[in-house]
Write a structure and sequence with these properties.
Domain RRM: 18-97, 105-185
Strand content: 25-35%
Largest sheet: 5 strands, antiparallel
Distance between the termini: 24 Å
InterPro entries: Hud_Sxl_RNA, Nucleotide-bd_a/b_plait_sf, RBD_domain_sf, RRM_dom
CATH topology of the largest domain: Alpha-Beta Plaits
Keywords: Nucleus, Repeat, RNA-binding
Number of strands: 11
CATH architecture of the largest domain: 2-Layer Sandwich
Shape: elongated
CATH class of the largest domain: Alpha Beta
Protein name: Protein alan shepard
Function: Has a role in the perception of gravity.
Number of domains: 2
Number of helices: 5
Length: 217
């Protein structure tokens, strides 16, 4: 899923030439790894991966980087856009003010066979479109699969097709029909986008910091 971004040379009111949004981040990417990818281009004011910190710790799959200099932000787009990071290629572009609509592309799935791997989950849904993120939840105490997961598509139409095609279907190796619906995290994701975008505009912390050195990360 690609959130609010702009790659054009002319930026509408409210956009900045130093604040970037990075989409398609791997679920396992750490803040430190994220920082190290972008700091090689130039000094950074603010850098964060947006996550549901209050509950699941689940990464929303996007983050923000604000450079001190506009020329470094432009250079980062040229050098790092489409960069392979783990199993994905990241998208780097100028962040723009949050829109009112965030596409409902992330699906919440229940009754997934507990023997399923991430690859099997992707195979189950890949015929409906381009999957940009997937996750299987595990019990925090036992570490065992909960039979619950998320699949995020690139387009709303793909997610809708997956709901139509998979909701109520019992998959191979399963004993119960799948429950497939739009995830209820979009309010959180929207809040995360607002928080990340405005942190870039209003950041008052002087100088770039490695996330590991900041108590707030």
């Amino acid at each position: 899923m690609s959130f609010e971004s702009s790659t054009g040379s002319a930026l509408p009111d409210g956009e900045t030439r130093t604040n970037l949004i990075i989409n398609y981040l791997p679920q396992t990417l750490t803040d430190q790894e994220f920082y190290k990818i972008f700091v090689v281009v130039g000094p950074i004011k603010n850098c964060r991966i947006m996550k549901d910190l209050k509950q699941t710790g689940y990464s929303f799959g996007f983050g923000f980087v604000e450079y001190q200099k506009p020329e470094d932000a432009a250079k980062a787009i040229l050098q790092l856009n489409n960069l392979p990071v783990q199993h994905k290629r990241i998208k780097v572009s100028y962040a723009r003010p949050p829109g009112e609509d965030i596409k409902e592309t992330n699906l919440y799935i229940q009754n997934i066979p507990r023997s399923y791997t991430l690859d099997q989950l992707e195979e189950l849904f890949s015929s409906y479109g381009h999957i940009v993120q997937k996750n299987l939840l595990k019990d925090k105490v036992t570490g065992l699969p909960r039979g619950v997961g998320f699949v995020r598509f690139d387009k709303k139409s793909e997610a809708e097709a997956a709901i139509s095609g998979m909701n109520g279907v019992t998959p191979e190796g399963g004993t119960e029909p799948l429950v497939v619906k739009v995830a209820e995290e979009h309010g959180k994701m929207k809040a995360a986008y607002y928080a990340g975008y405005h942190a870039g505009l209003n950041n008052t912390r002087g100088g770039g910091q490695d996330p590991s050195e900041s108590a707030g990360w």
